[in-house]
Design a protein that fits this description.
The chain is 80% helix and 0% strand. With 477 residues, the protein is an all-alpha fold.
Length: 477
């Protein structure tokens, strides 16, 4: 029993540290969306910035070969030389970047990319280096430094946004430049403060270990691209297929869709904070793993369902903090919120693949979801316009969840409580229908939100009590 308590205590301690690290940066990402609606000239310009950010997100796993996944997984392995892990990761990123430079003419063909190509390349390189350094110090359990870096990165990002957007008025160029400068400062800080320079030794490059790391992480590249297809290709579909839809340009619809991601980021924040801590516990905690995973999954899903219900309830009022011509973005929020929840649950199941080094399973499940998303995006846009991509993303991620729930059974038998999950999902869908169809939606949607929170309250509170009592007990000692 003491060992069991220690598992939960370690998880909550790491979660608190990563909450500190992520809260400030994610708070900025929440605040920055309304700010951008005023700082940028129009939804068209907002649309361009979102497209460029998504192009960078597509190129990052290609350039890095997904090596950050291998850095933390092999870095946590006590039998591996940490200098070799770090140097192998750095060599992979540098080689990937050289290859991307050689493919410059092909990258120029990406819509809108030609005007921002140098900045895109710089953003990709800085992001890859920052991720390498932060994942490496995580593998060394330097979690407090991760938290400090998160706060400092937030501060620099805010400063660069203000300088390049509000003072210099550089528009989309300033947006990308701020991202590059912030990531570069973070990479330098972590490299120095995290003592990464002690592990910088070109002689430690280990070809055998490198091959082992690549075998683990290379399947993550198409998996990451598939994830990108489900979550970001929506904007390219909307830009191409929704020109003049409802009297708006394709870029305007992209800008509105980008603003629609504002509230679902709350779900993403909860998921990312938890997952970064959970990833460490999932790998290092070996005793009674099946019961541990099942218990945490139930609590995690309960928290997510409560958050989803609350975000949908508040989506119309909170979208009013944007400039008036962005208000229609609220209609994208409900299904994007559900999609964000599915992403969080899929990441939880992906941690099982991480534990058992089954990255190929992560690949094929994401490929299936991506293939479905490409088809549904086209069909649903033809059917109901730009809103269709949000439903397509949700259904694609549901497929990924079902495939992972089935495929992980051979590794860990999780108790998913399917009846309980189906009830929660049904209530959320009824909440969405009420929001879209009822003129006076406030009371019924409020009641449904309360019911969903009530169903999940006992589960969340029982775990919160357990964790709080452990923390207080440790303080007392």
């Amino acid at each position: 029993m003491p060992g069991s308590n220690k598992k939960y205590s370690t998880l909550v301690n790491n979660t608190i540290l990563f909450a500190i690290s992520n809260f400030s940066s994610k708070l900025v990402s929440l605040i920055i969306q309304p700010y951008l609606s005023y700082a940028l000239d129009s939804p068209d310009v907002m649309g361009v910035t979102k497209l460029m950010q998504n192009v960078a997100n597509l190129l990052i796993p290609v350039v890095s070969l997904g090596v950050s996944y291998a850095v933390i997984r092999f870095g946590l392995d006590k039998t591996k030389d940490k200098s070799s892990v770090f140097m192998n990761g750095l060599a992979t990123i540098l080689m990937g970047f050289v290859l991307m430079v050689l493919f410059w003419p092909a990258v120029r063909l990406i819509p809108n990319a030609g005007d921002y190509l140098v900045l895109l390349y710089l953003c990709v390189l800085a992001s890859c280096l920052r991720t390498l350094c932060t994942q490496f110090i995580r593998s060394r359990m330097c979690n407090r430094l991760v938290a400090i870096d998160g706060v400092m990165t937030t501060a620099t990002l805010l400063g660069f946004y203000f300088l390049f957007l509000s003072v210099l008025g550089m528009g989309a160029t300033g947006y990308l430049l701020a991202m590059f400068c912030s990531d570069l400062c973070s990479a330098i800080f972590v490299f120095v403060a995290g003592g990464c320079r002690r592990f910088f030794n070109p002689a430690k490059f280990d070809r055998a270990l490198w091959k082992e790391m690549l075998r683990y992480c290379v399947p993550m590249i198409p998996a990451s691209i598939s994830f990108w297809i489900i979550n970001a290709s929506d904007m390219f579909y909307v830009q191409a297929m929704c020109e003049d839809y409802g009297g708006r340009t394709g870029n305007t619809w992209v800008g509105l869709l980008g603003a629609g991601y504002f509230l679902p980021q709350i779900i993403t924040i909860v998921g990312q904070i938890f997952y970064e801590a959970w990833q460490l516990s999932a790998v290092t905690e070996e005793e009674d793993r099946q019961a541990f995973f099942s218990r945490i999954f139930r609590v995690y899903a309960s928290v997510l369902f409560c958050c989803v219900a609350g975000v949908i309830w508040l989506c119309q009022p909170l979208m009013r903090i944007f400039r008036a011509d962005y208000f229609d973005a609220w209609q994208f929020v409900p299904f994007l919120t559900l999609a964000s929840m599915c992403t969080c649950l899929n990441n939880f199941l992906n941690s099982i693949y991480v534990v058992y080094k089954r990255s190929s399973s992560s690949l094929y499940t994401m490929l299936c979801g991506a293939a479905l998303n490409l088809v549904l995006n086209y069909l649903f846009i033809l059917w109901i316009g730009p809103l269709g991509v949000t439903i397509a993303s949700f259904l694609s991620l549901v497929l990924v969840f079902l495939l992972r729930a089935y495929s992980t059974r051979g590794l860990i038998e999780l108790d998913f409580h399917p009846g309980w999950m189906a009830l929660n999902l049904a209530l959320v869908l009824v909440e969405i229908v009420a929001l879209f169809t009822l003129e006076h939606w406030v009371i019924p949607v409020t009641v449904l939100t309360a019911v969903i929170c009530g169903i999940n309250f006992r589960e969340v509170w029982s775990m919160a009590e357990k964790l709080l009592s452990m923390v207080l007990h440790r303080r007392g000692r």
